[in-house]
Design a protein that fits this description.
This protein is an alpha/beta fold and 523 residues long. The protein has three domains: 2-236 and 352-410, 3-Layer(bba) Sandwich (FAD/NAD(P)-binding domain); 258-344, Flavocytochrome C3, Chain A, domain 1 (Alpha-Beta Complex), CATH 3.90.700; 431-480 and 482-504, Methane Monooxygenase Hydroxylase, Chain G, domain 1 (Up-down Bundle). The chain is built from 13 helices and 16 strands. The strands form four sheets. Strands 1, 2, 5, 6, 7, 8 and 15 form a seven-stranded mixed sheet that branches. A four-stranded antiparallel sheet has the order 10-13-12-11, covered by helices on one side. Strand 7 and strand 8 (188-199) form a beta hairpin. Helix 1 (14-23) runs parallel beside helix 10, helix 2 (59-69) crosses helix 3 (76-95) and helix 3 crosses helix 10 (388-406). The longest helix is centred in the C-terminal third of the chain and has 24 residues, at 455-478. The chain is globular and about 65 Å long. The structure holds flavin-adenine dinucleotide (FAD) and succinic acid. The site of succinic acid (SIN) has 8 residues, from loops.
Length: 523
Protein backbone atom coordinates (compact mmCIF):
# COMPACT_ATOMS: atom_id res chain seq x y z
CA UNK A 1 0.00 0.00 0.00
CA UNK A 2 1.36 3.43 -0.96
CA UNK A 3 0.48 6.81 0.49
CA UNK A 4 1.95 10.18 -0.45
CA UNK A 5 2.32 13.45 1.38
CA UNK A 6 4.31 16.68 1.17
CA UNK A 7 5.86 16.50 4.64
CA UNK A 8 6.30 13.20 6.45
CA UNK A 9 6.98 13.79 10.14
CA UNK A 10 8.26 10.83 12.13
CA UNK A 11 7.45 11.49 15.78
CA UNK A 12 4.87 13.48 17.73
CA UNK A 13 7.03 15.01 20.47
CA UNK A 14 7.85 18.70 20.64
CA UNK A 15 10.08 18.64 17.53
CA UNK A 16 7.61 16.79 15.32
CA UNK A 17 4.59 18.83 16.36
CA UNK A 18 6.40 22.16 16.10
CA UNK A 19 7.60 21.32 12.58
CA UNK A 20 4.12 20.13 11.60
CA UNK A 21 2.41 23.30 12.78
CA UNK A 22 4.93 25.49 10.95
CA UNK A 23 4.91 23.44 7.73
CA UNK A 24 1.14 22.91 7.52
CA UNK A 25 0.37 26.25 5.78
CA UNK A 26 2.59 25.10 2.90
CA UNK A 27 1.32 21.58 2.22
CA UNK A 28 -0.05 18.32 3.53
CA UNK A 29 1.62 17.03 6.69
CA UNK A 30 1.45 13.41 7.82
CA UNK A 31 2.70 12.62 11.32
CA UNK A 32 3.42 9.00 12.18
CA UNK A 33 3.90 8.09 15.81
CA UNK A 34 4.72 4.64 17.07
CA UNK A 35 2.58 4.87 20.20
CA UNK A 36 -0.25 7.23 21.08
CA UNK A 37 0.37 10.77 19.90
CA UNK A 38 0.76 11.97 23.50
CA UNK A 39 3.49 9.50 24.40
CA UNK A 40 6.98 10.97 24.08
CA UNK A 41 9.87 12.15 26.24
CA UNK A 42 8.47 15.63 25.83
CA UNK A 43 5.38 14.91 27.90
CA UNK A 44 7.58 14.00 30.91
CA UNK A 45 9.71 17.15 30.76
CA UNK A 46 9.60 18.73 34.18
CA UNK A 47 12.04 21.62 34.76
CA UNK A 48 11.15 23.68 31.73
CA UNK A 49 12.50 25.46 28.71
CA UNK A 50 15.40 27.90 28.76
CA UNK A 51 15.06 31.31 27.11
CA UNK A 52 16.43 34.80 27.53
CA UNK A 53 13.42 36.75 28.75
CA UNK A 54 14.37 39.73 30.92
CA UNK A 55 17.43 41.64 32.20
CA UNK A 56 19.76 41.01 33.93
CA UNK A 57 19.87 37.97 31.64
CA UNK A 58 21.08 38.48 28.11
CA UNK A 59 21.94 36.43 25.04
CA UNK A 60 25.65 36.48 25.74
CA UNK A 61 25.22 35.04 29.22
CA UNK A 62 23.05 32.19 27.96
CA UNK A 63 25.55 31.48 25.17
CA UNK A 64 28.46 31.51 27.62
CA UNK A 65 26.73 29.13 30.06
CA UNK A 66 25.88 26.75 27.22
CA UNK A 67 29.45 26.80 25.91
CA UNK A 68 30.80 26.25 29.41
CA UNK A 69 28.50 23.27 30.08
CA UNK A 70 29.38 21.85 26.65
CA UNK A 71 33.11 22.17 27.54
CA UNK A 72 33.57 24.51 24.56
CA UNK A 73 32.72 21.73 22.10
CA UNK A 74 29.40 23.36 21.19
CA UNK A 75 29.44 25.37 17.97
CA UNK A 76 29.26 28.96 19.11
CA UNK A 77 27.49 30.23 15.98
CA UNK A 78 24.76 27.62 16.43
CA UNK A 79 24.38 28.38 20.13
CA UNK A 80 24.05 32.10 19.34
CA UNK A 81 21.45 31.39 16.68
CA UNK A 82 19.39 29.20 19.03
CA UNK A 83 19.54 31.56 21.99
CA UNK A 84 18.78 34.60 19.82
CA UNK A 85 15.59 32.91 18.60
CA UNK A 86 14.53 31.72 22.06
CA UNK A 87 12.04 34.50 22.81
CA UNK A 88 10.29 34.29 19.44
CA UNK A 89 9.92 30.53 19.57
CA UNK A 90 8.59 30.71 23.14
CA UNK A 91 6.07 33.23 21.82
CA UNK A 92 4.99 30.62 19.22
CA UNK A 93 4.29 28.15 22.02
CA UNK A 94 2.36 30.80 23.95
CA UNK A 95 0.39 31.77 20.82
CA UNK A 96 -0.59 28.11 20.41
CA UNK A 97 -1.97 28.12 23.95
CA UNK A 98 0.86 26.99 26.24
CA UNK A 99 0.60 28.41 29.75
CA UNK A 100 3.86 29.16 31.50
CA UNK A 101 3.73 30.11 35.20
CA UNK A 102 3.78 33.81 36.06
CA UNK A 103 4.71 35.62 39.28
CA UNK A 104 2.70 38.18 41.22
CA UNK A 105 3.93 41.01 38.99
CA UNK A 106 2.57 39.20 35.94
CA UNK A 107 6.06 38.38 34.62
CA UNK A 108 7.07 34.85 33.70
CA UNK A 109 8.33 33.06 36.80
CA UNK A 110 11.78 31.92 35.74
CA UNK A 111 13.49 28.95 37.37
CA UNK A 112 17.14 28.03 37.51
CA UNK A 113 18.96 24.76 36.89
CA UNK A 114 22.48 23.38 36.76
CA UNK A 115 25.00 25.46 34.80
CA UNK A 116 22.70 28.50 34.40
CA UNK A 117 24.15 31.70 35.81
CA UNK A 118 20.72 33.40 35.65
CA UNK A 119 17.06 32.57 36.28
CA UNK A 120 15.86 31.75 32.74
CA UNK A 121 13.78 28.57 32.75
CA UNK A 122 10.11 28.97 31.80
CA UNK A 123 7.96 26.26 33.27
CA UNK A 124 4.47 25.06 34.03
CA UNK A 125 4.84 23.82 37.62
CA UNK A 126 6.95 20.68 37.21
CA UNK A 127 4.83 19.41 34.29
CA UNK A 128 6.12 21.69 31.56
CA UNK A 129 6.29 19.07 28.81
CA UNK A 130 2.76 17.87 29.40
CA UNK A 131 1.45 21.42 29.08
CA UNK A 132 3.40 22.07 25.87
CA UNK A 133 2.20 18.81 24.30
CA UNK A 134 -1.40 19.53 25.34
CA UNK A 135 -1.39 22.89 23.61
CA UNK A 136 0.42 21.77 20.46
CA UNK A 137 -1.64 18.63 19.98
CA UNK A 138 -4.80 20.66 20.36
CA UNK A 139 -3.64 22.85 17.45
CA UNK A 140 -2.38 19.95 15.34
CA UNK A 141 -5.56 17.91 15.72
CA UNK A 142 -7.74 20.71 14.42
CA UNK A 143 -5.48 21.72 11.52
CA UNK A 144 -6.99 20.66 8.18
CA UNK A 145 -3.55 19.99 6.65
CA UNK A 146 -2.29 17.75 9.45
CA UNK A 147 -3.02 14.04 9.69
CA UNK A 148 -1.80 12.10 12.73
CA UNK A 149 -1.38 8.34 12.48
CA UNK A 150 -0.88 6.70 15.86
CA UNK A 151 0.57 3.26 16.43
CA UNK A 152 2.52 3.50 13.17
CA UNK A 153 6.11 2.31 13.53
CA UNK A 154 8.67 3.59 11.02
CA UNK A 155 11.09 0.83 10.07
CA UNK A 156 13.46 2.54 7.65
CA UNK A 157 13.70 5.62 5.48
CA UNK A 158 13.62 5.04 1.73
CA UNK A 159 16.65 6.02 -0.38
CA UNK A 160 18.22 4.97 -3.71
CA UNK A 161 19.22 1.78 -1.87
CA UNK A 162 15.61 0.64 -2.24
CA UNK A 163 15.86 1.22 -6.01
CA UNK A 164 18.74 -1.23 -6.14
CA UNK A 165 21.62 1.27 -6.05
CA UNK A 166 24.67 0.50 -3.95
CA UNK A 167 25.06 3.19 -1.30
CA UNK A 168 28.22 3.76 0.71
CA UNK A 169 28.86 6.14 3.58
CA UNK A 170 31.08 8.22 1.26
CA UNK A 171 28.39 8.65 -1.38
CA UNK A 172 27.17 12.20 -1.99
CA UNK A 173 23.62 12.92 -3.06
CA UNK A 174 21.79 10.21 -1.15
CA UNK A 175 18.12 11.21 -1.28
CA UNK A 176 15.23 10.40 1.01
CA UNK A 177 11.92 9.49 -0.69
CA UNK A 178 9.88 8.74 2.44
CA UNK A 179 9.73 5.74 4.76
CA UNK A 180 8.45 2.22 5.25
CA UNK A 181 6.02 2.21 8.15
CA UNK A 182 4.62 -0.81 9.96
CA UNK A 183 0.98 -0.75 10.99
CA UNK A 184 0.68 -3.51 13.60
CA UNK A 185 -3.11 -3.23 13.77
CA UNK A 186 -3.32 -4.35 10.14
CA UNK A 187 -0.12 -6.43 10.19
CA UNK A 188 1.09 -4.49 7.12
CA UNK A 189 4.11 -2.45 6.11
CA UNK A 190 2.99 0.69 4.25
CA UNK A 191 5.06 2.79 1.87
CA UNK A 192 4.89 6.48 2.73
CA UNK A 193 6.20 8.62 -0.13
CA UNK A 194 7.11 12.17 0.81
CA UNK A 195 8.72 15.20 -0.71
CA UNK A 196 10.30 16.09 2.61
CA UNK A 197 10.83 13.88 5.66
CA UNK A 198 11.56 15.02 9.23
CA UNK A 199 13.13 12.66 11.72
CA UNK A 200 11.87 13.64 15.17
CA UNK A 201 12.03 10.31 16.98
CA UNK A 202 13.64 11.48 20.23
CA UNK A 203 16.35 9.83 22.28
CA UNK A 204 17.73 6.42 23.18
CA UNK A 205 17.66 6.15 26.98
CA UNK A 206 16.33 2.60 26.66
CA UNK A 207 19.86 1.54 25.71
CA UNK A 208 20.56 1.58 29.48
CA UNK A 209 19.06 -0.42 32.35
CA UNK A 210 18.30 2.69 34.38
CA UNK A 211 16.81 5.63 32.51
CA UNK A 212 14.37 8.48 32.94
CA UNK A 213 13.23 8.00 29.33
CA UNK A 214 9.88 6.48 28.37
CA UNK A 215 9.85 3.10 26.60
CA UNK A 216 9.54 4.72 23.17
CA UNK A 217 13.13 6.02 23.48
CA UNK A 218 14.86 3.26 21.52
CA UNK A 219 16.93 5.47 19.22
CA UNK A 220 14.94 4.45 16.13
CA UNK A 221 15.58 7.61 14.12
CA UNK A 222 19.31 7.66 14.77
CA UNK A 223 19.57 3.98 13.81
CA UNK A 224 17.45 4.45 10.65
CA UNK A 225 19.51 7.43 9.54
CA UNK A 226 22.77 5.61 10.28
CA UNK A 227 21.66 2.57 8.25
CA UNK A 228 20.79 4.94 5.40
CA UNK A 229 24.39 6.24 5.68
CA UNK A 230 23.61 9.66 7.15
CA UNK A 231 26.28 11.34 9.21
CA UNK A 232 25.80 10.64 12.94
CA UNK A 233 28.01 12.49 15.43
CA UNK A 234 28.99 12.82 19.10
CA UNK A 235 27.14 9.75 20.32
CA UNK A 236 29.72 9.14 23.05
CA UNK A 237 28.15 12.02 24.97
CA UNK A 238 25.33 10.26 26.83
CA UNK A 239 23.98 12.41 29.63
CA UNK A 240 23.09 10.88 33.00
CA UNK A 241 20.66 12.91 35.05
CA UNK A 242 22.02 13.08 38.60
CA UNK A 243 18.70 12.70 40.38
CA UNK A 244 16.27 9.98 39.44
CA UNK A 245 14.19 8.58 42.29
CA UNK A 246 15.93 5.47 43.60
CA UNK A 247 13.60 2.51 43.18
CA UNK A 248 15.05 -0.58 41.48
CA UNK A 249 11.51 -1.91 40.93
CA UNK A 250 10.31 1.06 38.89
CA UNK A 251 11.23 1.27 35.20
CA UNK A 252 11.60 3.83 33.69
CA UNK A 253 12.92 5.77 36.67
CA UNK A 254 11.00 8.77 37.89
CA UNK A 255 12.88 12.06 37.50
CA UNK A 256 13.39 14.45 40.40
CA UNK A 257 13.72 17.70 38.52
CA UNK A 258 16.92 19.72 38.74
CA UNK A 259 14.67 22.74 39.23
CA UNK A 260 14.29 21.58 42.85
CA UNK A 261 18.03 22.09 43.27
CA UNK A 262 17.55 25.48 41.60
CA UNK A 263 14.98 26.12 44.35
CA UNK A 264 17.47 25.26 47.08
CA UNK A 265 17.52 21.46 47.53
CA UNK A 266 20.91 19.99 48.34
CA UNK A 267 22.60 16.65 47.64
CA UNK A 268 23.80 14.73 50.70
CA UNK A 269 25.53 11.46 51.52
CA UNK A 270 23.59 8.83 53.52
CA UNK A 271 25.25 10.15 56.70
CA UNK A 272 23.84 13.60 55.99
CA UNK A 273 26.91 15.42 54.64
CA UNK A 274 26.80 17.86 51.75
CA UNK A 275 29.42 16.66 49.28
CA UNK A 276 29.11 18.64 46.04
CA UNK A 277 31.44 21.50 47.06
CA UNK A 278 34.27 18.96 47.12
CA UNK A 279 33.77 18.65 43.36
CA UNK A 280 32.66 22.07 42.13
CA UNK A 281 32.26 25.57 43.51
CA UNK A 282 28.67 25.64 42.18
CA UNK A 283 27.79 22.82 44.58
CA UNK A 284 24.55 20.96 43.83
CA UNK A 285 23.90 23.28 40.88
CA UNK A 286 27.06 22.39 38.94
CA UNK A 287 26.53 21.09 35.38
CA UNK A 288 25.12 17.58 35.13
CA UNK A 289 28.22 15.71 34.04
CA UNK A 290 30.04 16.94 37.14
CA UNK A 291 27.18 16.18 39.54
CA UNK A 292 26.49 12.71 38.11
CA UNK A 293 30.18 11.79 38.25
CA UNK A 294 30.45 13.13 41.80
CA UNK A 295 27.52 10.96 42.88
CA UNK A 296 29.07 7.96 41.14
CA UNK A 297 32.29 8.62 43.05
CA UNK A 298 30.47 9.01 46.39
CA UNK A 299 28.62 5.73 45.83
CA UNK A 300 31.93 4.00 45.14
CA UNK A 301 33.36 5.44 48.39
CA UNK A 302 30.36 4.58 50.56
CA UNK A 303 29.32 1.32 48.90
CA UNK A 304 25.71 2.54 49.11
CA UNK A 305 23.27 2.38 46.20
CA UNK A 306 21.96 5.95 46.37
CA UNK A 307 22.59 9.41 47.79
CA UNK A 308 19.93 11.80 49.09
CA UNK A 309 18.35 15.04 47.99
CA UNK A 310 17.41 17.22 50.92
CA UNK A 311 14.44 19.60 50.59
CA UNK A 312 13.49 19.58 54.26
CA UNK A 313 14.76 23.13 54.90
CA UNK A 314 12.50 24.55 52.14
CA UNK A 315 9.03 25.99 52.65
CA UNK A 316 6.59 23.02 52.51
CA UNK A 317 3.78 25.05 50.95
CA UNK A 318 6.01 26.39 48.19
CA UNK A 319 7.44 22.94 47.54
CA UNK A 320 3.98 21.53 47.08
CA UNK A 321 2.81 24.41 44.88
CA UNK A 322 5.86 24.51 42.64
CA UNK A 323 6.58 20.79 42.39
CA UNK A 324 3.22 19.01 42.70
CA UNK A 325 4.29 16.18 40.39
CA UNK A 326 7.41 15.32 42.40
CA UNK A 327 5.58 15.90 45.68
CA UNK A 328 2.76 13.51 44.78
CA UNK A 329 4.99 10.83 43.32
CA UNK A 330 7.25 10.76 46.37
CA UNK A 331 4.26 10.74 48.69
CA UNK A 332 2.95 7.64 46.90
CA UNK A 333 6.25 5.99 47.86
CA UNK A 334 5.89 7.09 51.47
CA UNK A 335 8.33 10.00 51.16
CA UNK A 336 7.04 13.40 52.31
CA UNK A 337 9.69 15.57 50.68
CA UNK A 338 9.10 18.42 53.16
CA UNK A 339 10.16 16.07 55.99
CA UNK A 340 12.10 13.17 54.48
CA UNK A 341 15.22 12.99 52.34
CA UNK A 342 14.67 11.72 48.79
CA UNK A 343 16.86 8.75 47.75
CA UNK A 344 18.30 9.54 44.31
CA UNK A 345 20.64 7.96 41.81
CA UNK A 346 21.90 8.97 38.32
CA UNK A 347 20.02 7.57 35.31
CA UNK A 348 20.58 7.74 31.55
CA UNK A 349 18.65 10.78 30.44
CA UNK A 350 19.67 12.37 27.16
CA UNK A 351 21.79 11.65 24.13
CA UNK A 352 23.73 14.75 23.04
CA UNK A 353 24.80 13.21 19.73
CA UNK A 354 22.64 12.14 16.83
CA UNK A 355 21.88 12.79 13.17
CA UNK A 356 24.17 15.62 12.16
CA UNK A 357 22.37 18.66 10.72
CA UNK A 358 23.23 22.14 9.53
CA UNK A 359 21.54 25.25 10.92
CA UNK A 360 18.42 24.55 8.83
CA UNK A 361 18.00 21.06 10.26
CA UNK A 362 19.15 19.45 6.98
CA UNK A 363 20.89 16.10 7.47
CA UNK A 364 23.57 14.82 5.10
CA UNK A 365 20.78 13.04 3.15
CA UNK A 366 18.89 15.26 0.69
CA UNK A 367 15.26 15.92 1.78
CA UNK A 368 15.83 14.33 5.19
CA UNK A 369 15.68 16.75 8.12
CA UNK A 370 16.23 16.04 11.80
CA UNK A 371 15.20 17.96 14.90
CA UNK A 372 14.88 17.32 18.62
CA UNK A 373 16.82 14.77 20.59
CA UNK A 374 17.62 12.53 17.61
CA UNK A 375 19.52 15.40 15.98
CA UNK A 376 23.08 16.62 16.48
CA UNK A 377 23.01 20.32 15.71
CA UNK A 378 26.19 21.51 17.43
CA UNK A 379 24.25 23.04 20.34
CA UNK A 380 25.23 20.77 23.21
CA UNK A 381 28.90 19.94 22.71
CA UNK A 382 30.19 17.52 25.32
CA UNK A 383 27.36 18.08 27.79
CA UNK A 384 23.89 19.59 27.37
CA UNK A 385 22.87 22.35 29.73
CA UNK A 386 19.57 21.74 31.53
CA UNK A 387 16.41 22.89 29.74
CA UNK A 388 18.28 23.61 26.50
CA UNK A 389 16.83 20.53 24.84
CA UNK A 390 13.26 21.74 24.44
CA UNK A 391 14.65 25.07 23.24
CA UNK A 392 16.95 23.47 20.66
CA UNK A 393 14.04 21.29 19.48
CA UNK A 394 11.75 24.20 18.68
CA UNK A 395 14.38 26.38 17.04
CA UNK A 396 15.53 23.60 14.71
CA UNK A 397 12.01 22.34 14.02
CA UNK A 398 11.14 25.91 13.03
CA UNK A 399 14.19 26.34 10.78
CA UNK A 400 13.66 22.92 9.20
CA UNK A 401 9.98 23.64 8.50
CA UNK A 402 10.77 26.86 6.65
CA UNK A 403 13.67 25.31 4.74
CA UNK A 404 11.51 22.35 3.73
CA UNK A 405 8.59 24.57 2.75
CA UNK A 406 10.67 26.98 0.68
CA UNK A 407 12.43 24.16 -1.17
CA UNK A 408 9.33 21.99 -1.59
CA UNK A 409 9.05 22.81 -5.30
CA UNK A 410 12.45 21.18 -5.93
CA UNK A 411 11.47 17.71 -4.67
CA UNK A 412 8.92 15.47 -6.30
CA UNK A 413 7.29 12.26 -5.10
CA UNK A 414 9.17 9.27 -6.50
CA UNK A 415 6.59 6.78 -7.77
CA UNK A 416 9.14 4.08 -8.65
CA UNK A 417 9.65 3.03 -5.06
CA UNK A 418 8.84 -0.66 -4.58
CA UNK A 419 6.59 -1.83 -1.79
CA UNK A 420 8.08 -3.55 1.25
CA UNK A 421 9.17 -7.06 0.41
CA UNK A 422 8.61 -9.64 3.15
CA UNK A 423 8.69 -12.70 0.93
CA UNK A 424 10.06 -15.75 2.68
CA UNK A 425 9.79 -14.30 6.19
CA UNK A 426 8.05 -16.23 8.92
CA UNK A 427 6.26 -15.23 12.08
CA UNK A 428 8.85 -15.35 14.82
CA UNK A 429 7.67 -17.57 17.67
CA UNK A 430 10.61 -16.74 19.90
CA UNK A 431 9.81 -13.28 21.24
CA UNK A 432 11.54 -14.24 24.47
CA UNK A 433 14.85 -14.12 22.57
CA UNK A 434 14.18 -10.53 21.57
CA UNK A 435 13.38 -9.53 25.14
CA UNK A 436 16.46 -11.31 26.43
CA UNK A 437 18.76 -9.70 23.87
CA UNK A 438 17.32 -6.29 24.70
CA UNK A 439 18.25 -6.77 28.36
CA UNK A 440 21.71 -7.94 27.39
CA UNK A 441 22.34 -4.79 25.34
CA UNK A 442 21.16 -2.65 28.25
CA UNK A 443 23.47 -4.52 30.62
CA UNK A 444 26.44 -4.13 28.28
CA UNK A 445 26.05 -0.37 28.01
CA UNK A 446 25.26 0.09 31.71
CA UNK A 447 28.22 -2.01 32.86
CA UNK A 448 30.86 -0.85 30.41
CA UNK A 449 29.77 2.40 28.77
CA UNK A 450 28.26 4.35 31.69
CA UNK A 451 29.39 7.45 33.57
CA UNK A 452 32.97 6.15 33.89
CA UNK A 453 34.60 4.24 31.02
CA UNK A 454 37.95 2.72 30.14
CA UNK A 455 39.50 1.32 26.97
CA UNK A 456 39.19 -2.21 28.32
CA UNK A 457 35.51 -1.75 29.20
CA UNK A 458 34.77 -0.32 25.75
CA UNK A 459 36.58 -3.20 24.06
CA UNK A 460 34.55 -5.68 26.09
CA UNK A 461 31.31 -3.90 25.28
CA UNK A 462 32.16 -3.97 21.59
CA UNK A 463 32.92 -7.70 21.53
CA UNK A 464 29.83 -8.67 23.48
CA UNK A 465 27.57 -6.46 21.41
CA UNK A 466 28.90 -7.92 18.20
CA UNK A 467 27.56 -11.37 19.03
CA UNK A 468 24.08 -10.01 19.76
CA UNK A 469 24.25 -7.98 16.55
CA UNK A 470 24.97 -11.09 14.44
CA UNK A 471 22.17 -13.09 16.09
CA UNK A 472 19.66 -10.27 15.71
CA UNK A 473 20.44 -9.61 12.04
CA UNK A 474 19.86 -13.32 11.31
CA UNK A 475 16.58 -13.24 13.20
CA UNK A 476 15.51 -9.99 11.48
CA UNK A 477 16.24 -11.29 7.98
CA UNK A 478 14.03 -14.32 8.39
CA UNK A 479 11.24 -12.91 10.58
CA UNK A 480 8.10 -11.01 9.74
CA UNK A 481 8.33 -7.48 11.18
CA UNK A 482 7.41 -6.80 14.78
CA UNK A 483 7.88 -3.49 16.54
CA UNK A 484 9.91 -5.06 19.32
CA UNK A 485 12.30 -6.77 16.92
CA UNK A 486 12.86 -3.51 15.03
CA UNK A 487 13.45 -1.68 18.31
CA UNK A 488 16.01 -4.28 19.33
CA UNK A 489 17.79 -3.88 16.02
CA UNK A 490 17.76 -0.10 16.48
CA UNK A 491 19.05 -0.15 20.03
CA UNK A 492 21.89 -2.45 18.91
CA UNK A 493 22.77 0.01 16.13
CA UNK A 494 22.72 2.90 18.59
CA UNK A 495 24.81 0.97 21.14
CA UNK A 496 27.31 0.20 18.39
CA UNK A 497 27.63 3.88 17.44
CA UNK A 498 27.99 4.96 21.09
CA UNK A 499 30.75 2.40 21.67
CA UNK A 500 32.59 3.09 18.41
CA UNK A 501 32.51 6.86 18.87
CA UNK A 502 33.55 6.48 22.53
CA UNK A 503 36.50 4.32 21.42
CA UNK A 504 37.54 6.98 18.93
CA UNK A 505 37.70 9.76 21.49
CA UNK A 506 41.13 9.75 23.06
CA UNK A 507 40.51 12.15 25.92
CA UNK A 508 38.10 12.73 28.80
CA UNK A 509 35.76 15.63 28.30
CA UNK A 510 32.26 16.47 29.50
CA UNK A 511 30.08 13.38 29.55
CA UNK A 512 32.79 11.12 28.16
CA UNK A 513 35.05 10.18 31.05
CA UNK A 514 37.65 7.52 30.24
CA UNK A 515 40.01 6.43 33.03
CA UNK A 516 42.78 5.81 30.50
CA UNK A 517 43.02 9.41 29.37
CA UNK A 518 44.03 12.55 31.21
CA UNK A 519 41.26 14.77 32.38
CA UNK A 520 41.23 17.55 29.79
CA UNK A 521 38.56 19.51 31.59
CA UNK A 522 37.25 17.53 34.54
CA UNK A 523 37.08 19.06 37.97
P1 LIG B 1 10.18 12.92 21.93
O1 LIG B 1 9.43 13.91 22.70
O2 LIG B 1 10.75 11.77 22.65
O3 LIG B 1 9.21 12.35 20.80
C1 LIG B 1 9.62 11.29 19.97
C2 LIG B 1 8.44 10.85 19.15
O4 LIG B 1 8.87 9.96 18.13
C3 LIG B 1 7.40 10.08 19.94
O5 LIG B 1 6.15 10.49 19.48
C4 LIG B 1 7.65 8.63 19.54
O6 LIG B 1 6.53 7.81 19.65
C5 LIG B 1 8.05 8.82 18.10
N1 LIG B 1 8.83 7.72 17.53
C6 LIG B 1 10.02 7.23 17.96
N2 LIG B 1 10.43 6.24 17.16
C7 LIG B 1 9.49 6.10 16.19
C8 LIG B 1 9.33 5.22 15.08
N3 LIG B 1 10.22 4.26 14.80
N4 LIG B 1 8.23 5.36 14.31
C9 LIG B 1 7.29 6.30 14.59
N5 LIG B 1 7.39 7.14 15.64
C10 LIG B 1 8.47 7.04 16.42
N6 LIG B 1 14.46 18.85 28.34
C11 LIG B 1 14.33 20.17 28.62
O7 LIG B 1 14.78 21.01 27.85
N7 LIG B 1 13.69 20.54 29.77
C12 LIG B 1 13.17 19.67 30.66
O8 LIG B 1 12.59 20.07 31.67
C13 LIG B 1 13.33 18.28 30.39
N8 LIG B 1 12.86 17.35 31.28
C14 LIG B 1 12.93 16.03 30.93
C15 LIG B 1 12.37 15.09 31.80
C16 LIG B 1 12.37 13.75 31.45
C17 LIG B 1 11.77 12.74 32.38
C18 LIG B 1 12.94 13.35 30.22
C19 LIG B 1 12.94 11.91 29.82
C20 LIG B 1 13.53 14.28 29.38
C21 LIG B 1 13.53 15.63 29.73
N9 LIG B 1 14.08 16.58 28.89
C22 LIG B 1 13.96 17.91 29.19
C23 LIG B 1 14.59 16.22 27.57
C24 LIG B 1 13.48 16.53 26.55
O9 LIG B 1 12.24 16.23 27.13
C25 LIG B 1 13.65 15.72 25.29
O10 LIG B 1 14.96 15.82 24.82
C26 LIG B 1 12.69 16.27 24.23
O11 LIG B 1 11.39 16.27 24.73
C27 LIG B 1 12.78 15.44 22.98
O12 LIG B 1 11.75 15.83 22.11
P2 LIG B 1 11.62 15.11 20.71
O13 LIG B 1 10.47 15.72 20.02
O14 LIG B 1 12.94 15.11 20.04
O15 LIG B 1 11.34 13.57 21.09
C1 LIG C 1 14.89 18.39 34.84
O1 LIG C 1 13.80 18.89 35.06
O2 LIG C 1 15.74 18.19 35.72
C2 LIG C 1 15.23 17.97 33.45
C3 LIG C 1 15.69 19.14 32.70
C4 LIG C 1 16.39 18.73 31.44
O3 LIG C 1 16.63 17.57 31.19
O4 LIG C 1 16.74 19.65 30.69
Amino acid sequence: MQKSTDFLVIGSGIAGLFFALKAAPFGKVTIVSKSTCEESATRYAQGGIAAVMYPPDDIQKHVRDTMDCGRELSEEEIVKMVVSQSRDRIQDLIDWGTHFDKNEEGLYDLGREGGHSEYRVLHHKDKTGLEIIRAMLHQAKKHPNIEILENHFTIDIITQHHLGEKITRQKKGIRCFGAYVYDPDRGKVKTFLARKTLMATGGAGMAYLTTTNPVIATGDGIAMAYRAKAEVKDMEFVQFHPTSLFDPLEKPSFLITEAIRGFGAVLKTPDGKEFMYKYDKRGSLAPRDIVARAIDQELKISGEDHVYLDCTHLDPGELKTNFPNVFEKCLQKGIDISRNLIPVVPAAHYVCGGIHTDKHGCSSIVNLYAAGECAHTGMHGANRMASNSLLESIVFANNAAYHAAYSLHSSEINRDIPDWNDEGTIVNEEMVLVTQSFKEVQAILSNYVGIVRSDLRLERAYKRLNLIYQETEQLYNKSFITTRLCELRNIINVAYIIIKQAMKRKNSIGLHYNLDYPKADQS
